[in-house]
């Protein structure tokens, strides 16, 4: 109310805190002359002396007693509330446990004001921090785990504040004293932090600037938060309270505090956890309806190939392939939500081939594991940096550090380019085998080398129709190559820095790229400019993946988060935190419901896209996971790593009977089963070849690729 404001303004003026006074006055819309009679009168009038001072202190006393009285009433008339009207003593309330105390919401005015006098004394930072540390370590077990999340963001902000205000020696001793207390997964960040010792260093360091500007998110139960708030206000520890309010976003939930395991599973990213709001938007994770066309039955070749001793009753299965696509998936996006390219005749033929192959597909499971065929790149002294395999497993491409892109044919059919224009004019366009005739036999070879990039090639991707190939490079460009002529058609320039990954949409035409500039871009092959720019990551976008329905894109980043973006409007619809290192691989399950992610921490995390929850953690790899792939029907997840192994996991078991009740979704209390060992179906070592890429053929044979390293 007005009287209180006036008293506070007078106090600010007495303490010579002009700036604060101005701000408060602007906020409260009070003019200068409203501050009452006790305000400083122009010198010359002798009124200001003892009388003025008395009036002030009297006003302040009255104000304080009013505040304490208000606090007493707020408690709800609790008999044990002791209100004291002497200035400086706050209302002490003894309340039976379990009854909500409302006192902390109106802290004693004098306590808040007195804190300004010692605002940010650099010598006290260590004392503040160790005081809070002592408080958290002595709090009850149930709150300790939650409140311990504060250590890291406070440590970073207090250190940066000291550096920023040029208290270099204090900053150094603060860092040395407390950096050992931080969780092991922040080691890399702390290494960067330790090199920032001067204000000038902070200007160039984007990661730390982001840390200062974006709010670090902590998810804490209401009880733990109240405990923290009460402690900071009793201790008048305003330096920390200011940081909490300015730089942290505390997502408070009602319910039981989370356990250490539950918190450890979710934290570790550069900006803390995701706000629960971030994962509430509706996501259409279902698959689009397949176009319908008749599949001709080739009975003669069905009989001949009786693979794996399977029964010969293939016909009902054919019908099921057709009928499955007739029902519209309730979770699917509308068919025309984003414009998708029309199917060409060649695409339809390919779909028919695909269905025939699917009929002969091996049903995988714990009892029936896939064979693995490993393509080892020998003598790859150029440095293999990327691999992709076409959907029909007929070609394999490697991107190399010497800036070349090399395409191999994996089948006996050699790679041929189209004839020259002069030769093409001689061909009879009406003949049945015109597509054969346009190919130049003289150019047939197993390997084609594509030159054009001026830096290492970090990502490659074949188009679904196998007519095009994308490659992205350290030179900041994405190139589109024709697999008919083996020449470069377009160079897409949008990223100013290295482009780490690129991928075609499952329907062709669109593709996505992600790079060091911390954004992912959506392109269409016939546009020079990107159609969408997905900005939000706080560090490099290291890997990109299209959802099977092409309406969403997942990006993994060095900020240790995975984001899901809506292609239609460019919004971020999911943020997944939990990895403790940069993310290098992503895979959607074939039904579109789940996402698997792999990172430098050697863990594969499984996510339920619809509910926005982590539903599993697969531990076993000892190094970065660079490749993840689900089998064609989604029964098995294969992971390939720098530890020279391919591991197979039981995806059906991992995703069955998930606890995705409303409570879990609301609070993020995830209970991950410790069942990695039960889900691991097999581990396959290579001699000394890190696994860079995995691919399931249409019949569920697993292809793996990597470059042999001699050390």
UniProtKB/TrEMBL annotation:
Annotated TFIID subunit TAF5 NTD2 domain residues: 120-248
GO cellular component: transcription factor TFIID complex
This protein's UniProt keywords: Nucleus, Repeat, Transcription, Transcription regulation, WD repeat
Family annotation (SUPFAM superfamilies): Taf5 N-terminal domain-like, WD40 repeat-like
Its biological purpose: The TFIID basal transcription factor complex plays a major role in the initiation of RNA polymerase II (Pol II)-dependent transcription. TFIID recognizes and binds promoters with or without a TATA box via its subunit TBP, a TATA-box-binding protein, and promotes assembly of the pre-initiation complex (PIC). The TFIID complex consists of TBP and TBP-associated factors (TAFs), including TAF1, TAF2, TAF3, TAF4, TAF5, TAF6, TAF7, TAF8, TAF9, TAF10, TAF11, TAF12 and TAF13. The TFIID complex structure can be divided into 3 modules TFIID-A, TFIID-B, and TFIID-C.
Matching InterPro entries: LisH (IPR006594), TFIID_NTD2 (IPR007582), TFIID_NTD2_sf (IPR037264), WD40/YVTN_repeat-like_dom_sf (IPR015943), WD40_PAC1 (IPR020472), WD40_repeat_CS (IPR019775), WD40_repeat_dom_sf (IPR036322), WD40_rpt (IPR001680)
Family assignment from sequence similarity: Belongs to the WD repeat TAF5 family.
Biased composition (Acidic residues): 295-306
GO molecular function, one term: RNA polymerase II general transcription initiation factor activity
Pfam families (alphabetical): TFIID_NTD2 (PF04494), WD40 (PF00400)
PROSITE patterns: LISH (PS50896), WD_REPEATS_1 (PS00678), WD_REPEATS_2 (PS50082), WD_REPEATS_REGION (PS50294)
Subunit composition and interactions: Homodimer. Component of the TFIID basal transcription factor complex, composed of TATA-box-binding protein TBP, and a number of TBP-associated factors (TAFs), including TAF1, TAF2, TAF3, TAF4, TAF5, TAF6, TAF7, TAF8, TAF9, TAF10, TAF11, TAF12 and TAF13. The TFIID complex structure can be divided into 3 modules TFIID-A, TFIID-B, and TFIID-C. TAF5 forms the TFIID-A module together with TAF3 and TBP, and in TFIID-B with TAF8. Component of the TFTC-HAT complex, at least composed of TAF5L, TAF6L, TADA3L, SUPT3H/SPT3, TAF2, TAF4, TAF5, GCN5L2/GCN5, TAF10 and TRRAP.
Gene giving rise to this polypeptide: Taf5
UniProt WD repeat ranges: 377-418, 450-485, 492-523, 534-575, 576-609, 618-650
Lineage of producing organism: Eukaryota, Metazoa, Chordata, Craniata, Vertebrata
Annotated SMART domains: WD40
Name of the protein in question: Transcription initiation factor TFIID subunit 5
Keyword Transcription regulation carried by entry: yes
Entry keyword Transcription regulation: yes
